[in-house]
Amino acid sequence: MSAYSTSLSLVPAWDFNSVQIFTDSRKLYEYLKEYPLSVGYVNIKFKFIEGVMYPSLCIKYEDGLYFVKEGETICTPQEFLISYPHLSECEVIAKVYHPAKKESVVSIFTRELKIAREEAKSQGNSLEAAILKLTLNSGYGKFAQGINENKKSLNLKDSTPERLVSTPMPHSKIFSPLIASFVRALTQPVTKEAIRGLKILE
């Protein structure tokens, strides 16, 4: 599976009656070590220690996201969890919800697709395996489709050979900013941590 479909297989069901508020960064870090799949937000003022080449916290500007060594931003619990050991300064206000004990439909469905794909591959059914791979890899995109209101797509219905028409990307039927944010938060910071680890090994 790709990194995004692997993250989808980890999406839990969250207990939204279990809100936790933190203003102590160390207590937040210890809590998230116990509940790493929590969801919520962390308003953080931070500074990375000297020598960090690949900071895992970003600040949004009009022209994109910038990963910086010092600043103030809002991040996910997973981004905080990955970044905290590499910070020399840290102030937080956080609101998080920990996972419920039951699995989510998203994680169950993703794992079933993965199993079906492995079975298709073992039986030599390359077409079915390819279709299941595309389905797995497109899952994150469908949860995120429509978040960026300025993004446009080709409108085949209204386009002609002489004139191509683009229209704003609509929300998909399974649009979920919460799940999209959670999946991205699992994938990107972990990738940056892996890159940091490779640089240390060098």
Strand order of the largest sheet: 2-7-3-6
Q: Please indicate the percent range of residues in DSSP E strands (runs of 2 or more).
A: 25-35%
Order of helices and strands: HEEHEEEEHEEHHEEH
Count of individual domains: 2
Dominant shape:
globular
Number of DSSP-assigned strands:
10
CATH architecture of the largest domain: 2-Layer Sandwich
Rounded average pLDDT: 88
Q: What fold name goes in the CATH topology slot of the largest domain?
A: TPR 1 domain of DNA polymerase
Show unreliable segments.
none
Helix count, per DSSP?
A: 6
Q: Give the class-level CATH name of the largest domain.
A: Alpha Beta
Largest sheet: 4 strands, antiparallel
Radius of gyration: 20 Å
Helix fraction bin:
40-55%
How far apart lie the N and C ends?
A: 28 Å
Helix-and-strand structural type: alpha+beta
Set out the fold topology.
Blueprint (H helix, E strand, L loop, with lengths): L2 H6 L3 E3 L5 E3 L2 H10 L4 E10 L9 E4 L2 E4 L2 E6 L1 H7 L3 E11 L1 E5 L1 H18 L3 H19 L7 E3 L11 E3 L8 H25 L1
Antiparallel strand pairs: 1-8, 2-7, 3-6, 3-7, 4-5, 9-10
Helix pairs in contact: 3-6, 4-5, 5-6
